[in-house]
């Protein structure tokens, strides 16, 4: 069995073929931008006291606190108050739409650049997909904890803390893949342009050679006609004499 970075190459190929469309990409980017603005707005409502030393609002919500224990998760949700937790539920709705929307261009960037690369080194779409599903599961867990608040489920709280950490881990790997993919895209794009220029130069040389051969045939034909005409005129002159 050959080694592959992408264990699901067919899934990656199908996603690339379906998402590699200008309308889909533009639509997903626009939706992601709109959702990002809504996320910032509701993050400020979730924790109205979350301001830095310069008075700028911070996104001081649970997933950005990177909790490590169940108590940290519970205390964070408790600190938001009833209004903050209600705003958090709306925040989670926009977060789900944002995660799905931004995954489309991310998957394209992580797969399109490797179309001409060897199959074994193509990272594919499975890591961006894993990050997307982890993020969605995180939103589901936080939604359940807020709806059950103030009743506690320490197991669910601890799972939420682990999911948040795993989400950031897969997100950092996805960002790394995107950066490498851009470099790979530039590399293969340059070599494609170079190869195309070589092919175009070869075709140009062939066309020039073909035109020269045609011109040579025409010149020979004209020379034969001229020689034939001179010969005919010489014979006519002889007859006249």
Automatic annotation (TrEMBL):
<protein>
    <submittedName>
        <fullName>Uncharacterized protein</fullName>
    </submittedName>
</protein>
<keyword id="KW-0472">Membrane</keyword>
<keyword id="KW-1133">Transmembrane helix</keyword>
<feature type="compositionally biased region" description="Low complexity">
    <location>
        <begin position="220"/>
        <end position="231"/>
    </location>
</feature>
<keyword id="KW-0812">Transmembrane</keyword>
<feature type="compositionally biased region" description="Basic and acidic residues">
    <location>
        <begin position="232"/>
        <end position="241"/>
    </location>
</feature>
<feature type="transmembrane region" description="Helical">
    <location>
        <begin position="92"/>
        <end position="114"/>
    </location>
</feature>
<feature type="transmembrane region" description="Helical">
    <location>
        <begin position="12"/>
        <end position="32"/>
    </location>
</feature>
<feature type="region of interest" description="Disordered">
    <location>
        <begin position="218"/>
        <end position="241"/>
    </location>
</feature>
<feature type="transmembrane region" description="Helical">
    <location>
        <begin position="166"/>
        <end position="190"/>
    </location>
</feature>
<feature type="transmembrane region" description="Helical">
    <location>
        <begin position="126"/>
        <end position="146"/>
    </location>
</feature>
